[in-house]
Specification:
- The complex is a heterodimer.
- By secondary structure, chain A is mainly α.
- Chain A contains four helices and no strands.
- In chain A, helix 3 packs antiparallel against helix 4.
- Chain B is mainly alpha-helical.
- The chains are: A mainly alpha, B mainly alpha.
- Chains A and B meet through helix 1, helix 2 and helix 3 of A and helix 1, helix 2 and helix 3 of B.
């Protein structure tokens, strides 16, 4: 059950990040109002994705420990996940939020491109970890 | 209806929308209108003050804090399970 819930929340995270991939490209060169809506939508998607990610994070770590043959190797697997993939995802979320903040301050199209790039990096990382569509 | 029943059409819809936007031209305009609909579906998105940059930046620290909270939950759950026998 835990694994299924983790998978579902992972799918939701990818779905929300997919939304970022749609919202940002079509909004390049848009009006100030559309730009603000784009950034708000992107921020809402990022927030939802982050919430879903943390549910996945807990479930996945617990599952790593359960799947291990003994306690020591379970703890080691959890520690490796935290230092590896999880740390990468953390950086990606931070980069995405920083990109959204930059785009909110400076009204230039390249900043929206930066938001798109940060969203894509995050999605690629989630897929690399094994979250499947 | 399960969560999967809801999620799968959502993903397919997003993928279709993405395909449309990549075509450009009038179809992209339609996609933008759809995005407006999506924005309307998120409470408070179309109204209120512009985004607060400080609040966005605060999320950067919040990510680390949330990770630490995740770890505390995991550690507690592992401790509750007890150690596994060494095989």
């Amino acid at each position: 059950m835990t694994r299924v819930l983790g998978w579902i929340t992972g799918v939701l995270a990818v779905a929300m990040i997919s939304l970022l991939m749609i919202v940002v490209p079509v909004s390049a060169g848009c009006t100030a109002s559309t730009r603000q809506t784009t950034l708000k939508t992107t921020l809402a998607a990022a927030d939802a994705a982050e919430k879903a990610w943390h549910t996945y994070d807990v479930d996945h770590q617990v599952q790593l420990h359960k799947d291990a043959s003994d306690d020591a190797s379970g703890v080691k697997a959890v520690q490796e996940f935290r230092a590896g993939e999880r740390a990468d995802v953390e950086k990606m979320f931070k980069t995405l939020y920083a990109a959204i903040a930059a785009a909110n301050v400076a009204n230039k199209d390249p900043n929206l491109t930066g938001v798109e790039a940060a969203g894509k990096l995050l999605m690629d990382e989630l897929v690399k970890i094994g979250v499947k569509l | 209806m399960t969560l999967l029943d809801i999620v799968e059409p959502l993903i397919k819809g997003l993928q279709s929308l993405q395909s449309i936007t990549q075509l450009g031209g009038p179809d992209a305009a339609i996609a933008l209108a759809l995005l407006d609909d999506i924005a309307l579906a998120i409470p408070g998105l179309k109204t209120g003050a512009p985004l607060d940059t400080v609040a966005i930046l605060a999320r950067i620290d919040a990510v680390t804090a949330a990770d630490k909270a995740d770890d505390a939950k995991v550690d507690a759950e592992i401790a509750a399970e007890g150690s596994k026998p060494v095989v």
